[in-house]
Design a protein that fits this description.
mainly alpha; Arc Repressor Mutant, subunit A; 2 strands; rod-shaped; two-stranded antiparallel ribbon
């Protein structure tokens, strides 16, 4: 059976119309999926930003608390030093100071670090691992010890490698 040209045109038109309807239906579905993906992406981005903000705030709080702990340790050492001077002034023999509380300008944590360095120079990462403190805490601690002259640091190497100075050795060996 041979189709005439009118029938072919009708079939082609019908095919184009069905294809067009099919395309319109799936383009609509595709737009819907794209909108849902954008919305989901915005929600995820919002959640991630919120979590990053909370982590930053917690990091700030932890840093503040670590600073306060160091300050309290320093006050405790200072208070112990005053108490020893008072007892000595009253004619009593001075009591023996435990190794973790010394009558000097260093905290017990600083003494622990200086004792670690008796075995040789160490980078902050190793000190952090031994102390179980945060990177920020160890950085502040080592800077303080450096400024007090108890440790030296290799300026040519990053991260710095810290070693005891003679003053640091005298302090530790004298506290044993």
């Amino acid at each position: 059976m041979i189709l005439d040209s009118t029938s072919l045109i009708t079939i082609e038109t019908l095919f184009v119309v069905v294809s067009g309807l099919f395309l319109i239906f799936y383009v609509g579905k595709l737009r819907s999926v794209i909108i849902q993906e954008r919305t989901a992406g915005e929600i995820i981005s919002s959640i991630v930003n919120s979590l990053e903000k909370k982590i930053y705030e917690k990091d700030e709080r932890i840093g503040d608390l670590l600073f306060r702990i160091d300050l309290l340790e320093s006050k405790m050492v200072s208070s112990t030093r005053k108490q020893i001077k008072t007892e000595s002034a009253e004619g009593e023999p001075p009591r023996v100071i435990p190794f973790n509380v010394m009558a000097s300008d260093v905290t017990s944590t600083e003494i622990t670090v200086l004792r670690l360095l008796l075995n040789g120079a160490k980078p902050p990462k190793e000190i952090q691992k031994e102390l179980g403190k945060s990177r920020e805490h160890v950085t502040r601690l080592m800077k303080r010890l450096f400024e007090k002259g108890y440790v030296s640091r290799n300026q040519n190497q990053r991260p710095f490698v810290y070693d005891l100075t003679n003053a640091g050795k005298d302090l530790i060996i004298g506290s044993r």
